[in-house]
Amino acid sequence: MQAGFEPKPRVFYGWTIVFVGAILTFLGTGFYSYSRGVFLPSLAQELADGSRFAIAMGFSIAAVTSALLAPFLGRILDSFSPKKVILIGIVIVTFSYLLLSICQTLWQFYLIVGIGMGVGMSCMGNLAWHRTIISWFDHWRGRAIALGVLGASLAGVVMPPLVTSLVEEIGWRPSFIIFAIIVMTLLTPLVYYLLKDRPEEIGEVRDGHAYRAKQADIRLASESEDRLWHWQDMLRSPAFWSIGMMFGAMGCVYSATMLHLFGHLKDIDLSATEAAYVLSITALFAALGKPIVGWMADALGARITIWVALIVHVIALLLFATGGGFVMSLITGAIYGFGYAGMSPLRSFSLSVAIGNRSFGAANGILRLVELPLVISASPLAGYIYDTTGNYRIAFFILAALMLVCCIGPFFIKAGGARERAPNLSSSSA
Known about the structure:
This protein is mainly α. It is 76% helix and 0% strand.
């Protein structure tokens, strides 16, 4: 070796884990989250005599299944292999898509979506993947989570137009078969060969050797990081409850909006293609808004950032309620997407700081139960309002009111010793 020559440091494998997570959220939860609204009118017409409430109940059953499974799955993830859990989830989701393609009755739909997709998405969703991320990252955890969830945001950009064209071209049943093939053939080898549960498996350390060599004194968590939390401790934590209620409300509003928005836009005389583009622009601004939200969180703190996001939610929901043409709907979608930007990484980051690493999986699982009443109510309520009134306007007004109530939540964001400042999401833009 020549004098003065220093070998180039090895690229930290944790960023490969982030890449796998981005693809996983793109092809996994992206299909499920951003395409189901496109399928809603067809499913309601063929399986439920036109009732969108009945179809929305299927997705709420899936949320209940996921929430009930989450505490047990969280404990499993803390002591077992997240990689194996994700692979199991891929298999379950694949078979669920195949069964959806031959579904003939509403009760079959409830079983396939409510049980199959509920279990499968829990296993391959954020619960497992975020557990992997916190094993690989400490100082860079916030930006790692943010980069990973960009996969879901990008799925929201490209999926609605593609799925709309696919359904119009070949029908909704063959579309589910294509979903199954894509999920199984692309995700299985990616996860099997590239995903590693912990850095120790390949001789790495959290954040990478290069970072550790610098002896940096910046830490995400306090002494509570190594503490083992029991469920009683979590339920006594004000931080835990504030995170659950606030982000649970945001999540249920987002779920209801994205499930019913496609149908709402068609009802106000937009074409299927135009409605799909509105969904895409919503997801696009959710992705583009992440660095802006990150800068705001760094400069102003998490509480003010969340307040801004909530108010933006309210404005967008009121604009959706009052209707408008294609251009106005695009603008409203962009506003709504920006309001939701950064909420998922901020949720996981806040929980990891409040609870620490050792009990993150269990805490995330129990948090799903705390969020359950909100999650299961919004989508069926919106469907019921549509079935009884013929439109979604009242539903959007109710969702806007819920976001206003959530403005109380940030007052408690510092409870439990969690750091108020958010992770440096501003450096996590794609």
